[in-house]
Amino acid sequence: MPVAPVALKTMSLPEFGEPTVMPLVARTTYEARIGALAARGSRFGFDAFVVYGDREHAANVAYLTGYDPRFEETLLVIVPGKQPKLLVGNEGWGYAEICDGPYERVLYQTFSLPAQPRDRSPALLDILADCGLKAGQRIGAIGWKPFGPGDAGFGETTLDLPSFIADTLRTLAGDKHTVVNAANLLMNPADGLRAINEADQLASFEFAATYSSQGLRNVLEGIEPGMTELQAARLMGINGYRNAATSCCRPASARPMVCQAPASTSSSAAIRSPWPMASTVRSMPVLVS
Fold first, then answer.
1. CA angle, 150 as apex, 74 and 59 as ends, to 5°?
2. Angle at alpha carbon of residue 144, lines to 142 and 145, rounded to 5°
3. Based on the domain organization, do 114 and 35 belong to the same domain?
4. What is the C-alpha to C-alpha distance for residues 53 and 72, in angstroms, rounded to an integer?
5. Does residue 181 sit in the same domain as residue 247?
6. Is residue 40 part of a domain?
7. Which SS3 state, helix, strand or coil, does residue 259 take?
8. Are residues 140 and 56 in the same domain?
């Protein structure tokens, strides 16, 4: 068969531009997500849900409310027929108001950092009871880790919440077997609610991905031998690296990382801690993500 001629050429990437307006997920979308969780939960025999979050495990609470706990722990309590309650600490109190999610804020100061005031919150047991949790309910506890058949020794009553929360829930329910790990309802890769993204969520993801990919391009176009890893990372120009006045707080779709492998190692060793930051870029391999 005939073969088309092949030529090797140097090409320049076109300028794709950056978005100027950050799309937001509508409050009605969060309300619909909470409603969908309650509806699915009822089919599995759940009477209520508690959804735990902290800085490293923020996604489930953020998915349901738009509030990403960046300072301290949080707990979202969902009882069908009642306004969802969001338990936050001192620093989360004002931030939860700004997020304006479909919840009522409840101050629980034990979620605050050590040495901060703890003089205005009742006991967790009393707060949860006031939210509508009570004995006889089957409560779905959602953290960040569902357990399956491959997790030997763990079953549906194994919770990944901090023990002071899990113990209180079991005390309130009156039977530890009625507080059940329900993370799969959100996180199961086949049919979990988070496996489906609405159009406004996709737009939000695309906005973040655009800035992240542009940051990578900035580094690839500007990196030079002799730069430190920190200098190369500043080229990303996202989240305040280049211009804090205009770039701060832009969302990113990946954790930024630039690190240089020692000259004596293979290219696969570029994936290593970037410290010390005085490491200089000599030549490839350099990992940028």
1. 25
2. 100
3. yes
4. 9
5. no
6. yes
7. strand
8. yes
58 in the same domain as 189 = yes
List the structure tokens of 87: 């338990």
Paired tokens of 276: 């010390």
Domain boundary among 145, 172, 195: 195
Residues forming beta bridges with residue 194, ordered by sequence position: none
Kindly list the averaged pLDDT for each block of 10 residues, start to end, along the chain of length 289. 85 81 93 98 97 95 94 96 97 94 98 95 98 97 93 93 97 96 96 95 91 85 85 74 41 71 51 49 55
Which own/partner pairs from 172-179 qualify as long-range (CB within 8 Å, at least 24 positions apart)?
172/125, 172/128, 172/129, 172/133, 172/134, 172/135, 173/133, 173/135, 173/136, 173/137, 173/139, 174/135, 174/136, 175/135, 178/136, 178/137, 178/138, 178/139, 179/139, 179/141
The label of the residue with tokens 């990944």 reads: 160
Side chain identity at residue 246, one-letter code: T
What is the model's pTM? 0.83
